[in-house]
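Please review this one:
***
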Amino acid sequence: MAGEEHDDPAESTGETFPRTTSPGTSSSFVAIIDPNTRAIANPHGAVSASYVVSATNAEILVQNRNGAELARRSLTDFWSPIYSGDLFSLESCRVVYDPFRSRWVFTSLGGGTAMWLLVAASDTSDPRGSWSLYKIDTDPSRTMFGDRPSVGFNDQWITVQVDMYRTSDNYFAESHIYALDKAGMYAGASTIFYQLFTPNDFGRSQVPALSYDVTEKQFLLGEWNNNFNGVGSLRLFVIEGDTSNATLYADAFIGPLGPWDYRAPNYAAFAPQLGSTQKIHLDDSRMQSVVYRNGAVWGVHGIFLPAGAPVRSAVQWVQVSQFGDLLQGGRLDDAAAPYISYAFPSIAVNKNNDALIGYSRFSAQQYASANYALRTAADPLGTLRDERVLKAGEAPYIKNPAIGGYWGRYSATVVDPANDTSMWTLQQYAAPPSGGIDRWGTWWGRVVPPALPNPTPTGPTPTRTPTPTYTGPTPTPTETATSTPTPTATATPTVTATPGCGLQPESGCRTPAVPGKASLSLKSKDDDSKDTLAWTWAKGAATARADFGDPLAAAIYDLCLYDATGVLVADANVPAGGLCGAKGPKPCWKAARPGFVYANKGATPDGVTKLTLSAGVVGKAKLAAQAKGHNLVLPGLPLALPVTVQLKSTAGVCWEARYSTAAKNDPGQFKAKAD
C-alpha cells in the first residue's frame, strides 16, 4: 500500500527546524490494520536498508520502505514447523533487526498446557526467506506461565527476558532471562546453546538493550521502585562473560527520580477518549524500550501521575552511563486538567545522539492517536521538542465493554540502518470500525532529525525536576543471579550494508551527457544467491583519470541507490586495495589504460564482482558496476520513482544517473534507462 508523504522542511529544503518543534515525517504509511482476530494488538517492528517488518498478535507484515506490501503471514503459519497451537495461544510478538549481521530476530510466546518461548532468526537479510526456528520450554514443572517478553542483542547474545507468573493465582513468580548464542542461531544450528538466569529478587521486566555499540556486555534496565519515601528509581543490570560462562548481576540504582504509581487505580481502564465514556486500559509502568548507544543506556516507559492518586499517564525517559550515572532524563507530561495521557513508548538513538520517542496519546478531546517527539544532541539536557502527530485517531475504541479498550502493550522506534541518522517509529492508533466492531491500526513514520552543527554526544549530569533527596536503600551492585547452561533448543531448517552513502543523494554529481545512456537492472530472486545488479553510466560528463583517485591503495567507492523520497535503499561498498581470487590471491584493483578495473569473484563485502572506471572527454567517459549473490542487499521491489543512483568516491568525485520511468518495475525485477 502506498504511503502518505509529508513535507519535512528540515529534509526537503535544508532549513533548520525551530528548536522547540519536532520535524514532520519524511514518509509514513499504514502497517497492520486490525483483522478482528485478536483484541489486543501488541504491535512491534523493525527496519533494514530494504525492508520494513511489522508484527502484531494477529500477523506479520513485510513491506518495502515506501509501504508497498511484499509478504504477509499469520503467526500460526510462521511458527507451524515447531508449534501446533492455534492463533489465540500465540502472543507478545517482538521483532528486531541486527544491523551488524543483517539478520532479523522474531520471538513469540506459545501457550496451552505448556508455555513455550519461540525464537527465530532469519537465514538471510530477506525476512521473506527461510528462518531457523527454536522452541524453549519456559517451565517444565508446569507451575508457571510466561508473559511480556522483551528482546535485545549485543556482540555475543540474543537476550530474551520473560516475566513468569504462578498458574495457581496469576501472581508474579520470577524473571527468566535467556542469553542465547547469537553465532549459533545465525548459523542455523540444530541445537542452540543458551544460559538461563532466574533471579527471584531482581523484580520484573529487566529489558535487554538493543546494542548499537560494539560491546561484550549486555545491559538491561528495569523499574526498581516507583515510590519509596517519595522517591522513584530504576536499576541497571549487566550480563558479562562469554557464551558458555556468563554472569548476570544487579548494578547501579538510577535516581533519584520523582515518584510515580505503578498502574491506574484498581488497575482499571484509565485513558479518556473522544466519542465514548468508555476508557482505554493503559496497563502498567514496567520498562518498555532500552537501547545502548554511544556508551550510554537509554530507556523509556509509561508512568502514572501524580503518585498516590493518578489522574493521567506520562512518558518517562532516561540516559544512563554504562556505570549507572544518570546523565539526563525527563518526562512528557500534561499536568493541567482535563489532562492528556501518554503511554506505550519506545525509543531510538542515532549515531549523533539524537533520540526519537514514539508513543500513543489519549484525551477526551481526541481519538487515540500515534505521536512522537524528538530531541537532538544539541537541545538542552532533559528536554524533548514539541510533539507531532504521526497518525490521528479516527474513531472511538472499545474492544470489550467489560474491560474497555485494552491498548497494545508495545510499540517500536528504531534507528535507520541505511544511514544511522534518520529514525522510524511504529505506533498504534484507533482505526475506523468494520462490521460494527472497533479496530486498532498501526502506522509507520520516518523522521529525519534536522542537521545541527557539532552534535554533542554526552553532557554533564543535569538537575532533574523534581529532584528529591534520595533516601532509599544504599546501592550495593554486587548481587548476582545463578545461570543454568541449557543447550536445549531445536532448530528447523549475511549481508552487511555499508553506511558510506549518506542520508540523501549528494549534489553536484556528474551526469551522462546523452539521455538514455545510463541503465540500471535489478533482479530479486527467492534464492538470494541469484540476486543481481547491473549499472552502466555511459557517454558521461568529462572525467579525468585523476578524478578516480588511487583505488589501488586509498580511494574507496560506494554504489548508492535512493528512492523517490530520498531514502537510501541499497548500498554496495568497494574497498580500496585488497587481494581477491580463490585460486591464488592477486590485487582486486588494477590500472587500465583509461582508468581502473576492480574484479572480485568472491563478491565481498557487498556483492560487487566488477567495477570499471573509464576516463574520457564529454560523451566518452564510462562507468559500469556488476554485483550478485548473498552479499548483495537489494532494495524491496517495486521501487518508487524516480530512482537515483550515485557512485561516490573518497577521492571527492561522484557520478549520478536518475530514472523517472522504468521498462520493468515489479516485485522480481527493475529495469530502466536514465533520464
Summary: Residues 1-18, 455-499 have pLDDT under 50 and may be disordered. The chain is about 0% helix and 45% strand.
